[in-house]
Amino acid sequence: MNAWKAIIVAILIGFPLSATAQSGLVVVELFTSQGCSSCPPADALLHRLTKREDVLPLALHVDYWDYIGWKDQFARPDHTLRQKGYAHAGGRNMIYTPQMVIMGQDDVVGADAMELADAIAKHRQILPPVAVYAAREGAFLHLTLRPLVVLPQEPLMIQLVRFAPVKSVEITRGELAGSQFDYANVVEGWQQLQPWDGQNELSFSVPLNGAQPVAVLVQRGEHGPILAAARVE
């Protein structure tokens, strides 16, 4: 990468653009594993993305590398199934780590900062077709979804994601033995709240235990494009 490209990557990945240029949140899902020797650069890149207000980075640890000597402490079979669902929807016959999926549509090799920056910039130019208003009040999360354009009559899924901002792990076996990492925005729960037809405004509340941050996603089905997202600290 030449010096000019490095500057562009630093601007797009490391710093948000001005508030006047912002559109909706760009959701970046990283499929990663503590048993994958090529994943740390992607994990570090995701960590840098947490500094941006216009990007929602999420780390989904998968379980299919657990057999090589180290069981990923954050891995969930559901994360592997989600990655397989994206592969199927995109006509791909394989999954790998590290992989980043942007807005449920574009996938890049997780450590490719330039390609990721291009994908984020592309989705920042797209105004979200749905407005998501989310507020925490006591033990409840209040949600209002409003269509901003005429949407096709197809099922949309409203999803609630619980994640930990930082989790530290010392790895003692496997390919990364002897390393310690701080993992960012580690997904700890992924809940399908309810379907929505996207035709009329919808308001409802859901119980919300604990003080950890959450995100709300509006997605076509379970593995289609993500139309809009909101983050609640």
Please report the total strand number as a whole number.
11
Which stretches are poorly predicted, pLDDT < 50 over at least 5 residues?
Answer: 1-12, 15-22
Basic shape: globular
Task: Determine the N-to-C terminus distance.
Answer: 36 Å
Count of domain modules: 1
Helix share of residues? 10-25%
SS strand fraction: 35-45%
Overall mean pLDDT score? Answer: 90
Structural class: alpha+beta
Q: Using only CA atoms, what is the Rg?
A: 18 Å
The major sheet is characterized as:
4 strands, mixed
In what order do the strands lie side by side in the largest sheet? 2-1-3-4
Oligomer: single chain
Topology pattern, helix = H, strand = E = HEHEHEEHEEEEEEE
CATH superfamily: Glutaredoxin
Tell me, what is the CATH class?
A: Alpha Beta
Describe what you observe in this structure.
With 233 residues, the chain is α+β, with helices and mostly antiparallel strands. The protein has helices at 3-14, 40-49, 77-89, 113-124; strands spanning 26-32, 55-61, 99-102, 106-109, 130-137, 140-147, 156-171, 179-196, 202-207, 214-220, 226-232. The strands form 3 sheets. The protein has a 4-stranded mixed β-sheet, with helices on both faces. A 4-stranded antiparallel β-sheet has the order 8-7-10-11, with helices on one face. The chain has a 3-stranded antiparallel β-sheet with strand order 5-6-9, with no helix packed on it. It is globular and about 55 Å long.
